[in-house]
Amino acid sequence: MDASFKAELIEWGVDWDEILDRFMGNEDLIAKFMFKFLNDQSMNDLTKYLAEENVSEAFKAVHTLKGVGANLGLKGFLTPVCELTEILRAGSMEGYKEKYDQIKPKYDALIAILTKYNA
């Protein structure tokens, strides 16, 4: 794994010790799964279903994002993702925008990092 890539992931908020342990110290495997995140559609689905005020589908999307984020050690946005999951789990949209507005720029920044090193 490129040292700059690793440094940017850590700076973004990846819990490196956690993910290194999860992937048994294999940094190339970490990179492989990080790049797979580029194909994950849960954020796009979340955005779509929130705009449509479809709480049940938005919940499914954010719950998936939460799971993927937890598995990849994406602590840089995991707290608001978890909070939004609970809002939607309750069948509500009250306060969703504040959480979404915390998630989206962090998500976009991560995608930019992954795209930069995936070339």
Primary descriptors:
119 residues, mainly alpha, 0% strand, elongated
Indicate the proportion of strand residues.
under 5%
Structural class: mainly alpha
Distance between the termini: 14 Å
Q: What's the gyration radius in Å?
A: 14 Å
SSE sequence, one letter per element: HHHHHHH
> Which range best describes the helical content: under 10%, 10-25%, 25-40%, 40-55%, 55-70% or over 70%?
over 70%
Task: Give the total of beta strands.
Answer: 0
Could you say which overall geometry the principal axes of the C-alpha atoms support?
Answer: elongated
Question: What do you see in this structure?
Answer:
With 119 residues, this protein is mostly helical. The protein contains seven helices and no strands. The protein has helices at 3-12, 16-22, 27-36, 42-51, 55-71, 75-89, 96-118. Helix 1 packs antiparallel against helix 7 (96-118), helix 5 runs antiparallel to helix 6 (75-89) and helix 6 (75-89) packs antiparallel against helix 7. The two termini are 14 Å apart. The model has no long low-confidence stretch (mean pLDDT 97).
Helix-strand layout with pairing:
Elements lengths: L2 H10 L3 H7 L4 H10 L5 H10 L3 H17 L3 H15 L6 H23 L1
In short:
By secondary structure, this protein is mostly helical. The protein is built from seven helices and no strands.
